[in-house]
Amino acid sequence: MKKIILGLLLLPAPLALPAAETLIKVAAKVGSEIITDYEIAQMGRMVEASMSPAERASDEGKKKLAEVKKRALDRLIEQKLIVLAAKDGPPGFKEAQTQGKASNNPYLPGSVEVEEEMEKAFDEVRKRFGGDDAFEAAMAKERLTLPELRNKMREQKRDEMTAGRMVKMKEREFQPSLRVTDEEAKAFYDENKSRFATGEQLDLRHILLKSADEALARQIMAKVRAARDMKAEFISQCKRHSIDDLTREQGGRLGWVERGQSEPEVEKAAFEAKAGGLAGPAESAAGLHLLLIEGHKDAEQKGFDAVKENCRNLIYQQKIQKRLEEWVEELKRSYYVERIEG
Predict the structure, then answer these.
(1) Consecutive H or E run containing 187
(2) CATH at residue 25
(3) Which domain CATH number covers 218?
(4) CA dist 115 to 150, 153, 305, Å?
(5) Does some domain include residue 170?
(6) Would you say 206 and 213 are in contact if contact means Cβ atoms under 8 Å apart?
(7) Do 22 and 158 reside in the same domain of the chain?
(8) 24 pLDDT above the threshold of 90
(9) 138 and 224: one domain?
(10) CA-CA distance, 68 to 74, in Å (whole number)?
(11) Last residue of a domain, one of 263, 280, 298
């Protein structure tokens, strides 16, 4: 189990429900809770939706998505275990509760807090449909009433918030025993110098078009080159034409991109251009990229003093990750877990 607790484990649970005719199979039982194959599929869809078209089309993106789907059941089991542990409360809580001496369970979010977060999530879901008519049509197709949807989202949000709160409180509990010394930080730096070296970087914006839109690409480039303010025109053209939903409204802003992090064709065009200039169209699996280069940085090796605190934080994250993983393994021995094959 690697890098689960602090990563995708706490992804929000899927908010959509399957069509009524879909056959849902139980994939696992955790205590009195069940995990369905539909939840596993939805986790993959959530991650896919969070990726840009370029990332989804890249080999790295496909690898990431395959890994998420492969580990989805493990992650869902772990989240269920954490929620069960949170509901049981701190040591001695159940006994005190039975005797009427316990206050509120500190691991659980309050009802008002859950309701506020559920309403935010509900509004986000409604907005995705682009209008009330489309939203109501989707509800009718799923044979789902508004109260049913709200109740489902409320329980999902409660579990999400509970797991997040529980992990944070366990981290605070473990923290005093996981301190990092200066000697550990220096040894980490010496063993990982390459992690603190940056390659040549460019500050980029891009406009992503379909591969068939070569004529449109030439028109856009001509308009940008002819403009008095190239950056303003590039941003305007991006908001009008780019098919990259994640960057379009930010004027195609990609930020600083290091050599070796982009598609080869796109990188070649960008790094051959001068800062302040244009590059492209360059074609990748995602489509045609038009590029605006806003800045340039040379490669750099940072010294230990400059990254000392970063080293300490990285070591701490390794330590807390390992301790949280050990804790989840303990939970697996404390609660009933059954994987259901087929």
Answers:
(1) helix 182-191
(2) 1.10.4030
(3) 3.10.50.40
(4) 10, 10, 46
(5) no
(6) no
(7) yes
(8) no
(9) no
(10) 10
(11) 298
pLDDT of 288: 93
153, 258: one domain = no
Query: What are residue 255's DSSP bridge partners?
Result: 204
Backbone angles phi, psi at 227, to 5 degrees: -75, 145
Q: Containing domain of residue 234, as a range?
A: 200-298
pLDDT at 331: 93
Residue range 125-136: mean pLDDT, rounded? 81
> pLDDT tier at 38 (50, 70, 90 boundaries)?
confident
Q: Judging by DSSP bridges, how do beta strands 33-36 and 197-198 pair with one another?
A: unpaired
pTM equals 0.61
The structure tokens listed for 189 are 């730096």
Phi, psi of 128 (to 5 degrees): -60, -25
* Separation of alpha carbons 110 and 308, rounded Å: 39
In a domain, 182, yes or no: no
Q: Which residues contact 284 (CB under 8 A, 6 or more apart)?
A: 54, 57, 58, 263, 265, 266
Residue 316 is assigned to a structural domain of this protein: no
Query: Cα 83 to the chain's mean position, in Å?
Result: 20
Specify the DSSP element, H or E, that contains 113: helix 111-128
Q: Which residue has tokens 């460019």? A: 202
Q: Summarize pLDDT for 218-232 with one digit per residue, the tens.
A: 999 999 999 999 999
